[in-house]
Amino acid sequence: MTVTRTVAAIVVAGLAALAAIGDAVAQAGRVPYAFAYIGLDSDPLYRPGRAYTGLTLRDANRPLDGAAMALRESRIVGRSLGLSLELIEAMVDDVSDVVAAMES
Description:
With 104 residues, the protein is of the alpha+beta class. It is 47% helix and 23% strand.
């Protein structure tokens, strides 16, 4: 067998295994899987930067939008694996409130 055929055989076997796992999980029902984003309201990293001649020299965006987009793009794969993906957002005032936000 050539290298190309060997690689193709491995890919087909892997896809068949993933399909079998996905079917088994789908029959068992959807498994909820939650991602949590906990941020500090007073985080100095995301404070708006100083503007120089009207230009903002620093982008102060939280990574929450990127996490939401990644979950939207992963929903099809998650559905095929029987997962229900969810993003939970919590903003806290102080570091001491992080544990309470995680437990809720």
